[in-house]
Amino acid sequence: LLLAFILEPLIPAFKRHFSPVDPEISFPFAHSPAVPVISLFFLSYFVPFAAITLVALSFHRRWHHYHFAVQGLLCSLAFTALITHVLKNTVGRPRPDLLARCQPQIPEPVPILVDVSICQEQNEYLINDGFKSFPSGHSSYSFAGLGYLGFYLAGQVRLLRAHTPPWKSLIVLLPFLMALLVAVSRISDYRHHWSDVLVGSAIGASCAWYFYRRHFPAVGSPVCSAPYA
């Protein structure tokens, strides 16, 4: 997982042609994003891992349960990373702040479409990253990790049982709310279009649900708190 983050900027990515006067990619560049990469790692990796460790070892005290729970989390994050980075490098969609990164020298008359050669910015990483808008990695990773934690907690508190107290619902909703806030921040930071965030969130949530169900029964099952044998 760490290797994917390290190598991804080094892999040549497809760069779409773009209009130098497109308002959709003319937003300012945010030098201090609301959720930096280190914070994303903390929220999507450490928080779910720590919470699962606490619940599994404090209440169940069974290595089998802990092993299955963590394995599901890591699978969710790994497959999300694979899907996200493959799409980022093959789609090549410009970010909303591309022109601020590019600092283009626009010729006269203004062409309908241009390529990256028009950019005056010398920072190659900044330019390459400007074409990795789809899908949102922050959104996919946050839902892959925190979404998995939400499904796990829903099973552990047996959320769908009759007369479940409201505080259990709040515990389950908290990870999903955190993931949603991370995803929305990418729109307000002008790092992603809303569709990038929507698809990224769907990728992460789908992987989280799939790998949770690969390791645990459905949340509505009478034995939802125990992993498969």
Automatic annotation (TrEMBL):
InterPro entries for this protein: PAP-like, PAP2/HPO, PAP2/HPO_sf
Pfam family, one: PAP2
The keyword Cell inner membrane belongs to this UniProt entry's keyword annotation: no
Transmembrane domains' residue ranges: 37-59, 66-87, 138-155, 167-187
GO MF annotation list: peroxidase activity; phosphatidate phosphatase activity
Protein name listed in UniProt: Phosphatidic acid phosphatase type 2/haloperoxidase
Record's bilayer topology term: Multi-pass membrane protein
Domain called Phosphatidic acid phosphatase type 2/haloperoxidase: residue spans: 71-212
Family recorded in the similarity comment: Belongs to the PA-phosphatase related phosphoesterase family.
Keywords: Membrane, Oxidoreductase, Peroxidase, Transmembrane, Transmembrane helix
Keyword Membrane: yes
Record-linked CDD domains: PAP2_containing_1_like (cd03390)
Domain of life: Eukaryota
Localization annotation: Membrane
GO CC field: membrane
